[in-house]
Specification:
1 helix; 20% strand; 85 residues; mainly beta
Length: 85
Amino acid sequence: SNGYGLYDMAGNVWEWVHDWYKEDYYSSSPAQRAAGARRRHQLILRGGSWINEDPWFLRCSVRFRGVPDYRVVNVGFRCVKDAFP
């Protein structure tokens, strides 16, 4: 388990991120802007999935892109709730 007592947080499914994809975002964006690129054609996917055999893909820093209506068995999202209401 991780520090929060949670298991299997990496490699379950590629997770949609609420940021629009921009090829050079990290090299050209200001450090304090966390919202990502302005609206574009593709959203970011992170983290790899059960279908990826190479452990390199099973990191939250791995980033791919997809159109928002893309549907496949190894892409999804994680429901999040504040730990401290």
